[in-house]
Amino acid sequence: MLESCFNVICVLALTQSISQGATDILFVVFFILQAGGFIAVQIKKKAFHSLPSSLCLSVAIAVWIFNGNQTELLGDGNLLIFGSQVPWQLKGIYLAWLAQVILSEYRHILPKLTILLVHMASFIVAVMADDFFHARIVTASHLLFLSLCFDLKLRSWGGADFAISQRVGVMMSKANIASWVSIICLLVCLSLAIHLLSNTLIT
User: Fold this and answer.
1) b/e for 132-160, b at 16 or more Cβ within 10 A?
2) What is the pLDDT of residues 86-127, one digit of tens each?
3) Distance linking the first and last C-alpha atoms of the chain
4) DSSP state of 154
5) In sequence order, what are the beta bridge partners of 58?
6) Cα–Cα distance list, 69 to 21, 81, 122, 124 (Å)
7) What is the pTM of this model?
8) CA separation for the pair 168, 136 (Å, rounded)
9) How confident is the model at residue 72, as a pLDDT?
């Protein structure tokens, strides 16, 4: 529902049905609810190993919003949210956060790699786009809808041998490896968040 609201905001912005100032306010509200929702769910699920990465991502998004301007309309239905490209550090933090969530919180669906593959495809599309978050959220919301229609997480979906990696499943089933993956993802998030903050303070 939240990501559908984001899509509605994008349509309103692209059709210029609301002012740019109102668009920016709605985008800020969306990112607050989105980040707050992830953190609240992780606290509720007691997924405390993922929580620090989510906090780093939230801080990086806040820095990007703070340094931004008004949202701009680009050609071919593209939006440049807050009038600035998403910093490479934020993209890196998002990738590490996504890897942490998929390989840790969704570890129980392994060795089925469907969720990993579709989210990585969505991330690659977003990285190649001028409007990173617009592309990422639009594709991710479609994937969420499709996952409601077809349970992509089931081992039997697409066939018992479709998108299966026993090696990844065995590797992530080991507690020490799963812990190291979480630690590495967190260190990447922390280092990139510190780099982004330091660049912001210098400029």
Assistant:
1) bbbbbbbbbbebeeeeeeeebeebeeeee
2) 999 999 999 999 988 888 777 778 888 888 888 888 999 999
3) 37
4) S
5) none
6) 10, 9, 26, 25
7) 0.86
8) 25
9) 80
Q: How many residues does the chain have?
A: 203
Positions of the chain with pLDDT lower than 50, given as ranges: none
d(CA 199, CA 42): 29
Using alpha carbons, list the distances in angstroms from residue 45 to 51, 142, 148. Answer: 10, 25, 21
Structure tokens belonging to residue 68: 């931004």
pLDDT confidence of residue 112: 81
Q: What is the dihedral of CA 162, 168, 170, 175, to 10 degrees?
A: -140
Looking at residue 100, its pLDDT comes to 86
